């Protein structure tokens, strides 16, 4: 269960594979206007002939009002790549024009060496095994290795407002992540961290900690802050938050920050 949203006004709705959610998602107002038609995310399937929406996994039905998106939040053991997913991948090796990335799926993902903003044959990144990349899934099926890209989809608006910047500027949405540390979390927690109302990230921000974070739906989380001690603090807070309610998360974060800052004063 998503502890960070337990105080949300909407009721908790648990669904199972095969549940018909048409009446709940495709309301008459949404069906009659393309501008307000709901978007279907992970765990939901729309069948055009019957015009029905069914759940494909067990979990909690979640609705994000600002984008009118519905999805099923769950905590599966193995990541299954889906087109559009934002993931973190670790370079394993280079094979010709492609890099093989470990994205925690059943097969490695393929990244073309020119799949970076502004990359050319003469001017492109040269990655080594162990390099960490933030990218998005552009192709996935059961018969081929998934393919990922570090390019923004379309004009960026359909890609969550992603910024298109040349790969050399280190200002783009996707690309190599340098410094910091990468931790693994459960797939359920990774998706919870991506929610706008996530409690632990909000609590860390209110404590005045400046940090960068990149979250992949495949369970990799990259963290970077001004001090290694803060990075360890943030990593511990993120992992501990999975089994806590909002009030406990806030107390835990405040306690960790107080302890670490107290240690600095004692030095």
Kindly describe this structure.
The protein folds into 3 domains: 71 residues, OB fold (Dihydrolipoamide Acetyltransferase, E2P), CATH 2.40.50; 92 residues, OB fold (Dihydrolipoamide Acetyltransferase, E2P), CATH 2.40.50.140; 80 residues, 2-Layer Sandwich (Ribosomal Protein S8, Chain: A, domain 1), CATH 3.30.1370. The protein is built from 6 helices and 15 strands. A 5-stranded mixed barrel has the order 7-8-9-11-10. It has a 4-stranded mixed β-sheet with strand order 1-5-6-2, with helices on one face. Strands 13-15-14 form a 3-stranded antiparallel β-sheet. A hairpin with a 4-residue loop joins strand 5 and strand 6. The protein is globular, with a radius of gyration of 20 Å. The N terminus is likely disordered.
By DSSP (H or I, 4+ residues per run), the number of helices equals 6
CATH architecture of the largest domain: Beta Barrel
Task: Note the gap between the termini.
Answer: 41 Å
Strand order of the largest sheet: 7-8-9-11-10
- Would you tell me the structural class of the helices and strands? alpha+beta
The total count of strands amounts to 15
Radius of gyration from CA coordinates = 20 Å
Average pLDDT rating = 86
Q: How many domains is the backbone divided into?
A: 3
Instruction: Give the CATH class of the largest domain.
Output: Mainly Beta
In the predicted model, the low-confidence regions spanning at least 5 consecutive residues are 1-9, 30-35
Largest sheet: 5 strands, mixed, barrel
The amount of helix comes to 10-25%
- Give the strand content: 25-35%
CATH homologous superfamily identity of the largest domain: Nucleic acid-binding proteins
CATH topology of the largest domain: OB fold (Dihydrolipoamide Acetyltransferase, E2P)
Shape type: globular
What is the succession of H and E elements? EHHEEEEEEEEEEEEHHEEHH
